[in-house]
């Protein structure tokens, strides 16, 4: 029981990386478990900003082991770019980055199909076009290539041929796209093999061995509970389990390894891409949240849709993930709002709902309460006592409605702009 799960409770971009970076100082190993380069995880240290798409957000703490787990879909180009940046800054990845041999590889046709599907479908998802859905689909269809395959040239070639025979027909007939040449992709895979040669292993075994030696592990969620393929707002979700289930299957750890589940929760809500968002504010307040919170996607640069805190969405995340405490982020962004709205439940056709509906979320009407805001800049607060009274009331209101403790408050992007309770 030495592992802490740090997971998003809303539609992603909750500030997971900032919190993971903070807690990484006390950990030995940080593991990404699912998703791929659709994630954009921002860490700011002394005004220097790093955005991670695949490498765990603990990497800036020298000497910590960072694992890309078996549940991740790995974009070769994105990983190499991220490695280049970190190595040019002096980070020793040969020593500290460990990649699962069972993680699936995103190949160029996955990106093509992701883009083409978005163009064709009339009901768009607004994906990141990083090839995530097509790669997870191939995994389920048993057409995927795994990182471990790159070390066995002959079988790799056979597997790739088998896949390309199907993909090239798909590309041509469904999308009128040119075929891929096996030689071209083999070359990419061989270059990748040379780069990651010493880093690839059976990470499930490595993690269990590490726990037996008493090492502390942080399991880093990507996306958020409301983007989970089963528990999120399907079909406007990502293609993996962004909830606790994906953390376990994507790392190979089991329930007995987990000590805490910290739910990362923004003090308001954002969403990128399409899909229902009951507390979205399309007016001046939403615009103000976007501007004050610099709410633009870390992966695609798209403006994030903004709105108010939603208690029902959080209760859903609490149930699904067994959240033991909340880290509340971006509280500083709410400074200057005279009134702060918070949805405490939903109505549908005048009837109060007991839980978040799985299908007709667009039809629900949020029931709002309004709390008094505060005008003070709180970004220099380092203790709960430093916060204005109304900010403390906002925190208590959330705690009472969720019956959960808020154990961490973030009041700025920098590592040190944090309050531990
Ligand atoms: P993640 O995907 O959950 O890791 O979150 P992102 O990195 O996509 O987005 C969070 C954004 O908010 C990043 O730009 C962070 O630097 C920034 N951020 C994180 N915590 C805070 C905070 O408490 N206050 C402010 N103002 N910005 C924050
Ligand atoms: P982090 O880890 C916010 C969204 C996309 C789109 C949907 C499906 O930074 O919180 P995909 O490319 O996964 O097929 O897109 O999911 N999405 C995210 N939104 N944060 C993320 O990750 C996201 N990853 C995917 O915008 O709506
Ligand atoms: Mg993000």
Helix/strand layout:
Elements: E1 3-8, H1 16-24, E2 29-32, E3 41-45, E4 48-52, E5 65-68, E6 73-75, H2 76-88, H3 93-96, E7 97-100, E8 104-106, H4 108-120, H5 132-141, H6 153-175, H7 182-196, E9 200-201, H8 203-212, E10 217-220, H9 244-249, E11 258-266, E12 269-271, H10 284-292, E13 305-307, E14 309-310, H11 311-321, E15 325-329, E16 339-348, E17 351-352, E18 365-372, H12 389-402, E19 406-410, E20 418-420
Parallel strand pairs: 1-10, 1-11, 2-5, 2-10, 5-7, 6-8, 7-9, 11-15, 14-16, 15-19
Antiparallel strand pairs: 3-4, 12-13, 16-17, 16-18, 19-20
Helix pairs in contact: 4-5
This protein binds guanosine-5'-diphosphate (GDP), 6-O-phosphoryl inosine monophosphate (IMO) and magnesium ion.
Protein traits:
binds 6-O-phosphoryl inosine monophosphate, binds magnesium ion, 421 residues, 10-stranded mixed β-sheet, binds guanosine-5'-diphosphate, 4-stranded mixed β-sheet, single chain, globular
Report helical residue fraction: 25-40%
Distance between the termini: 22 Å
Taken from the alpha-carbon principal axes, the silhouette is globular
Question: Which spans have pLDDT < 50 for at least 5 consecutive residues?
Answer: none
What is the strand arrangement across the widest sheet? Answer: 9-7-5-2-10-1-11-15-19-20
Number of helices: 12
Radius of gyration: 22 Å
Structural class: alpha/beta
List the ions, cofactors and other small molecules found in this model.
guanosine-5'-diphosphate, 6-O-phosphoryl inosine monophosphate, magnesium ion
For the report, how would you describe the main beta sheet? 10 strands, mixed
């Amino acid at each position: 029981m030495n592992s802490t799960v740090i997971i998003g409770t809303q539609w992603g971009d909750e500030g997971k990386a900032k919190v993971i970076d903070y807690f990484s100082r006390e950990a030995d190993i940080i593991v990404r478990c699912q998703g791929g380069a659709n994630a954009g995880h921002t860490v700011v240290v002394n005004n220097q900003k790093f955005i991670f798409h695949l490498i765990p957000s603990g990497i800036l703490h020298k000497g910590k082991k960072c694992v890309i787990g078996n549940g991740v879909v790995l974009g070769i180009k994105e990983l190499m770019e991220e490695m280049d940046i970190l190595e040019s800054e002096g980070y020793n990845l040969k020593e500290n980055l460990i990649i699962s041999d069972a993680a699936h590889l995103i190949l160029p046709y996955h990106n093509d199909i992701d883009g083409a599907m978005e163009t064709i479908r009339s009901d768009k998802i607004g994906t990141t076009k990083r090839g995530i859905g097509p790669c997870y689909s191939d995994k389920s269809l048993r057409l995927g290539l795994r990182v471990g395959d790159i070390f066995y040239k002959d079988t790799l070639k056979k597997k790739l041929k088998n896949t390309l025979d199907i993909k090239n027909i798909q590309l041509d007939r469904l999308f009128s796209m040119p075929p891929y040449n096996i030689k071209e992709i083999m070359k990419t895979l061989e270059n990748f093999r040379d780069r990651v040669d010493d880093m690839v292993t059976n990470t499930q075994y490595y993690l269990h061995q590490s726990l037996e030696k008493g090492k502390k592990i942080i399991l880093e969620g990507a996306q958020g509970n409301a983007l989970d393929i089963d528990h999120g707002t399907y079909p406007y979700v990502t293609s993996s389990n962004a909830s606790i289930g994906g953390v376990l299957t994507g790392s190979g750890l089991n329930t007995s390894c987990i000590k805490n589940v910290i739910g990362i929760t923004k003090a308001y809500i954002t969403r990128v891409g399409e899909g229902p968002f009951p507390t979205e504010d399309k007016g001046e307040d939403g615009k103000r949240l976007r501007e004050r919170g610099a709410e633009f996607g870390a992966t695609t640069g798209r403006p994030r849709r903004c709105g108010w805190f939603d208690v029902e969405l959080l209760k859903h995340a609490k149930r699904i993930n067994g959240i033991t405490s909340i880290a509340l982020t971006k509280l500083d962004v709410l400074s200057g709002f005279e009134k702060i709205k918070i949805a405490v439940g939903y109505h549908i056709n005048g009837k109060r709902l007991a839980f978040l509906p799985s299908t007709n979320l667009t039809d629900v009407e949020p029931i709002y309460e309004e709390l008094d805001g505060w005008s003070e800049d709180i970004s220099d607060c380092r203790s709960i006592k430093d916060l204005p009274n109304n900010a403390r009331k906002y925190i208590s209101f959330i705690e009472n409605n969720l019956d959960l403790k808020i154990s961490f408050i973030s009041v700025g992007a920098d590592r040190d702009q944090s309050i531990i309770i």
